[in-house]
Amino acid sequence: MATKLCLPDGAVRGIDIQGAQTGTVTSYTAGRDGTVSVDNPQHERALREYGAFPSSLGGHTRRGFRCAGCGFGSFFKHCSRCGGTCEREN
Fold it and tell me: Can you give the residue ranges of every domain in the chain?
């Protein structure tokens, strides 16, 4: 599952990560929402060292449910992000 990260500064529109073993360069370009989707755990770690942080796409729900595992806000008891069980939010 891809992790959504926000780049460290609003002015940063993309970043390149060079692989340690093969030396190939992977480019991560921010989308319209300012986030990048990262599949590689090593690249995620490198981006976090540069200052990237996880996006909070869950937000608040009104009379909905909140996932106990990942904190995602939902209107359903089954989390669409991680597959966990959601609890009623007060």
Answer: 3-54, 58-90
